[in-house]
Amino acid sequence: MPIRIEVQSPHASAANAILHGAAALGIDGLRGCTLARLYFIEHDLTEAEINRLCTMLLVDPVTEQARWRSVDAPTPPSEQASGQQIVEVTFRPGVTDVPARELARSMAEIGIEGGEVVTGTRYELEGELDTAEVRRLARQLLSNETVQHFSLEPVIPHFGVAAAASGEVERVALTGLSDEELLALSRRRLLSLDANEMRAIQDFYDQLGRAPTDVELETLAQTWSEHCVHKTFRAQIDFTWEDSTGEVVSKEVIDGLLRTYIRAATDAVYPTWLHSAFVDNAGIIAFDDTHDLAFKVETHNHPSALEPFGGANTGVGGVVRDILGVSARPIAATNVLCFGPQEYPHSQLPAGLLHPQRIASGVVAGIADYGNKLGLPTVNGSVLYDEGYLGNPLVFCGCAGLLPTGSHPTSPQAGDHVVVLGGRTGRDGLHGATFSSAELTHDTSETAGSAVQIGDPITEKGLIELIEAARDASLYTAITDCGAGGLSSAVGEMGESLGVDVELTNVLLKYPGLVPWEIWLSEAQERLVIAVPSENLPRLHELAKLWDVEVSVLGTFTGDGDLRVRYAGEVVADLPMEFLHDGLPRRYMNALWREPAQPAASPVIKDAPNDLLLRMLAHPNIASKEKIVRRYDHEVRGGSIVRPFGGPEMDGPNDAAVLKPLGTWDHTRAFALSAGINPQIGRNDPYAMAISAIDEAIRNAVAVGADPDQLAILDNFCWGNPTLPDRLGALVRTCQGCYDGALAYRAPFISGKDSLYNEYNGTPIPGTLLISAIAIVPDMNCTVTAPCKSPGNLLYLVGSTHDELGGSLLHSLYGSTAGKAPGLPDQGLETYRRLHQAMCNHLIHACHDLSEGGLALALAEMALGGRLGIEADIPSSGLSPISALFAESNGRLVVEVAPEDALALEATLAGSSFTRLGVVTERQQFSLAVDGTPTIDLSVAELVSAWSRQPEGVTP
Amino acid sequence: MSRPKILILHVSGTNRDAEAARAAELAGGAPEIVHINQLRQGERKLDDYAMLLLPGGFSYGDALGAGARLALDLRVYFEDQLHEFVDRGRLVLGICNGFQTLVKYGLLPGDPAAMQQDNRETVTRRVTLTENASGHFECRWVHLQVNPNTPATYLAQIDDLIFCPVAHGEGNFQVVDEITLNALAKDNLIAFRYVDEEGRPIGGVYPDNPNGSVADIAGITNAQGNVVGLMPHPEDHILPIQNPLGRSSRLGLPLFRSMIDAAGKG
After folding, report:
1. DSSP for A228-261?
2. Which of A691, A727, B105, B193 makes an SS bond possible with B71, Cβ 3.0 to 4.6 Å?
């Protein structure tokens, strides 16, 4: 007799959030809301046992109350009060339900063995609501049907149905199919292969004289997916450049974007401290004599659009496993988020889309949940709001890790065992088949089968501990993350040079009933694959037991060059690795870059600079993100030297994070993490976007004390459909900017990722490039933060301002991206080197980079962060006052220096452009003049008030 | 004097153990991070240590409420050992998730009469740590005032405020009634309160009180003075370079030093 336990828990804040959410949906009749947790236990429990569970585990006697009954019993009147409507929500079968698992384990601990558990949430709604409104609330606020289902009466839990194991394998006949038929097959089976690629498979099997099994076909589709092999970035591209009239300026053939621009830049600068670029799950640089740093940034866009919490949650989990995949201990997390406008009218929201507010809330909660539970400080990031991200939010998740130099083995040996560690395998993420097609309004998917799941950070935490221990004991010879494509990708890649023979019935399953290809392709989270020599297996099992991690040994690396997959001994896939990895035909694509019509008129700026500055400070992209950032633990591990916020009130924005890793406190080296992103400039000129993003990431790192000569960068492209020549043309220009920018700063790319096909109903997102930087801070005692420090200190502008307002924040206030976009600064690297020297000499008290909003906004942020005034006179140098204040030229920072050090600073910066601007004042007034003419005059309180206004609704 | 041995307990989801170990080391202790499975299998014995430190994190994901399942573990596997440890006056420090666990278990504030009952699971808790008033996790630096008059007399040697971060979602200290609160105050069991940066009472005002705790309670001790718990993280401020205001005072280290000194004398 299954039991239903209901725990009423008085959480005013959650209830308030629901009231606000309902009002935002235009449902005004909701007056009150109470929440209860639901536990369903399929077990014959005695009353004493239930009471024991409640007292010992489920109910907080100080704040909560519980009631219970048999699930099958009729609903007692107390559960359905008059004038009250209820919504009950539970997870769909197969979705990770951590509380249920923990309850089942706890029950076992106190002697109640067996019995399945399901959890849920009950909402009691008060007010005048009709059923349609309740249903809307349930759908749009209280549940997400991608992973949950709801009921307007007491829910009947869906306990797992015992299904028999199944070895069912299908043979897919390809012989004689036409291109159209092949394409149709590809679409039907969600293979995401084009006709060319399908034909290559057809030819291969025709030569073998047999039909592929479903396991083989799915394996090929995964291995050949955009996600796994970056077909677009490897394709040969015919690139045509036209002027604004359509006249062809030039034509060129590009032999792969990755090879021609990204890797070429790395190869051109390849510094000695660079230990691994592009070949592994993450890039690796030297940290000190005995440690390396690994860094990776991933995106999880499409899952986050459908199930924001789970999408972002597993986004963090995925990138953390990339770091584990290079044998590093994850030590910090970053994230950059792009959402639609938070106040977007619900009435105008296209059907099938979640509201940007709901996406933002869920994503932030998902990131916080995973990162906090892993004990990773989330230290750097940014949040952008733009209508272009309405249908496709972007969720970039980054992770940095530390590993002893040379401790990452990459060569499995014949005879080694194929071992899977971590979570169990379920039907998770198979082609995204878990979500309904109605919600798949995107016509193309970013990756083959990256579907939505809820993460399980505690299982991943066990993996972190186990991998560190196994690495230190040299127990494995190779390691990789089990991500997109599941075991098929992980095992297929690891066995590329040797061949493998694996048995699928050895895979630990969450529930029975999976057919072979489902086991092989499942993208269940929190799994890693390692290669383990026989003699090390016993020790591995011991360690895994200690750290509570499950292990399954699937088979061995053979040395015969074949991928052989069995189910209960029966071979269900037998493919030469050579065809799997080299059989993919290269793509040929067309790209077109047409120069924008010239010259688009720049907006006429009539508003007063005071108002402009206040509007900028309050702009959602600029205003304080404190409400979001404080949900992330940025202190755990005790190594945060420069944090997201600084100044006496600890609310002023800093430019980058500086971290001191645990285990390295015997010296003073530290490292910085920073980012650069500016899609607004990309709308004007994608080439300039790349230059600016690189410059921004580097100057942010330099601003906190990083050495520009020990700095590596990562590229993350989020783009529209690259098979359309205009999208691809802009992507080509961006890559060209990446090459030029990286070379100008001698900064190697060490890792990168692309997320393509981000389109909604034919409209692409604004092409978005995120550049992330990781850099060495030679001395943690020489870091600098942005807020002003002391009255009487002098302020200097380092770098020079040009009439570059194209894609600027100023112009965006007028709905325009017109104007000349920022280019590469003269002597950018030399200037950063000199500035870094000044920091090493302890000459700099504060430093802030100039990006959106230019000089005026940077100075305002320094003043408000320090709660000090600024009195400055800005030489226009022939520019208009507006340009002098708001232009977004690259290569610029403001520094604060003590008057007695001014000469020393000027000497250190000799050769670079710098300008003395003014002084920091005790009086909290922000006064900027241009060429002696007072232009901006505001109190610091006004600055703080404008900047601290949080974007409406970002109260996840 | 030899360094007192400190057992830092690690379970699935523990995450501030390494920092806690570092703080304990710096404060003169000999910390060892021990997995609960090592204790269960008898590879390590609680009795061999002078002090038990339950560090921060999300034990078992806090999936059934913060610290609830770890408290169950302690009760199921180590109840007798733990009570003996405490009864013999050995020291126990719970930070954040460790504090939540000690409260959920009932060791804090503790009730000597209840402890003697045979059927300990039916003891009704009168205090709890519940969801923050804001409804969500929050990370920010706070100031703590140490009560010099608690039964944990060694805490009196901490002569300054402690400035350190909180990082939790369920740190809101609540009591079942006024009587309980008065009893805590009367017995001087309230060991740490959130205060402003001048050390003044803040009357519950956010964000100096980051979570809505009644009477600005950040941490408490038991009547014997050998079990101490607090939500904030003194282990994240053991060196001036960690101070976000760039000052060199108000470290969290003296808290560790005071307890480890006491453990050494124990």
Report:
1. HH-HHHHSEEEEEEE-TTS-EEEEEEEE-HIIII
2. B105
Residue pLDDT, tens place only, A861-909? 999 999 999 999 999 999 999 999 999 999 999 999 999 999 999 999 9
Q: Global pTM? A: 0.95
Annotation says B233 is catalytic = yes
Interface of A with B in 354-373 (CB under 8 A): 365, 368, 372-373
pLDDT score for A163: 62
Strands of A3-9's sheet in order across = A65-70, A3-9, A30-41, A117-127, A84-91, A148-151
Beta-ladder partners of A531: A418, A478
Domains of chain B with bracketed CATH: 5-265 (3.40.50.880)
Asked whether A631 and A13 are in contact (CB, 8 A), the reply is: no
Candidate from B16, B133, B140 with C-beta closest to A630: B140
Residues A741 and A753: their CA atoms lie apart, in Å, by: 18
Chain-chain contact of B64 with A57 (C-beta, under 8 angstroms): yes
The secondary structure element, H or E, covering residue A265 is helix A263-269
pLDDT of the residue at A10 = 83
Phi, psi of B137 (to 5 degrees): -60, 145
pLDDT band at A161 (very low <50, low <70, confident <90, very high): low
Q: What's the pLDDT at A24?
A: 84
**By three-state DSSP, how is residue A751 classified?**
strand
pLDDT score at A436: 27
Q: Which helix (H) or strand (E) holds B83?
A: helix B68-87
Interface contact B174-A63, CB threshold 8 A: yes
CB A638 within 8 A of CB B236: yes
Average pLDDT over residues B142-149: 98
| Residues of chain B contacting residue A546, judged by C-beta atoms under 8 Å apart | 35, 37-38
pLDDT in tens, A467-526: 999 999 999 999 999 888 899 999 999 999 999 999 999 999 988 888 999 899 988 899
CB B49 within 8 A of CB B7: yes
> End-to-end CA distance of chain B, in Å?
12
- The pLDDT score that the predictor gives to residue A780 is 97
First-to-last alpha carbon distance for chain A, in angstroms, is: 38
Is there a contact between A631 and A737 (Cβ–Cβ < 8 Å)? Answer: no
Question: Could you read off the pLDDT of A312-360 as tens digits, one per residue?
Answer: 999 999 999 999 999 999 999 999 999 999 999 988 998 889 999 999 9
Inspect the interface and report whether the beta carbons of B241 and A109 lie closer than 8 Å. no
Specify whether B83 is catalytic: no
Listed as own residue / partner, the contacts of B110-114 with beta carbons closer than 8 Å and 24 or more positions apart are: B110/B86, B110/B222, B110/B223, B110/B224, B110/B227, B112/B223
Cα A432 to Cα A195, A437, A663, A754, A755: the distances in Å are: 22, 9, 41, 19, 16
Yes or no, beta carbons of B128 and A635 under 8 Å apart: no
Q: In the block, which residue shows the tokens 């038991």? A: B222
Q: What angle do CA B93, B94, B97 make, to 5 degrees?
A: 165
Range A585-611 average pLDDT:
89
Q: Using alpha carbons, list the distances in angstroms from residue A584 to A224, A421, A587.
A: 7, 30, 9
Which pLDDT band holds residue A599 (cuts at 50, 70, 90)? low
ipTM exceeds 0.90, yes or no: yes
For chain A, the average pLDDT equals 92
The count of C-alpha atoms lying within 13 angstroms of the C-alpha of A100, restricted to the half-sphere facing its C-beta, is 26
Report the chain A residue with the minimal C-alpha distance to residue B100.
A60
Phi-psi region of A243 (alpha: psi -120 to 50; beta: other; left: phi over 0): beta
Residue B115 pLDDT greater than 80, yes or no:
no
CA–CA distance, A597 with A614 (Å, rounded to integer): 32
Identify the sign of the CA torsion A727, A733, A736, A738.
negative
Tell me how far apart the alpha carbons of residues A480 and A323 are, in angstroms, rounded to a whole number: 9
Is residue B39 exposed (0-12), middle (13-18) or buried (19+ Cβ within 10 Å)? buried
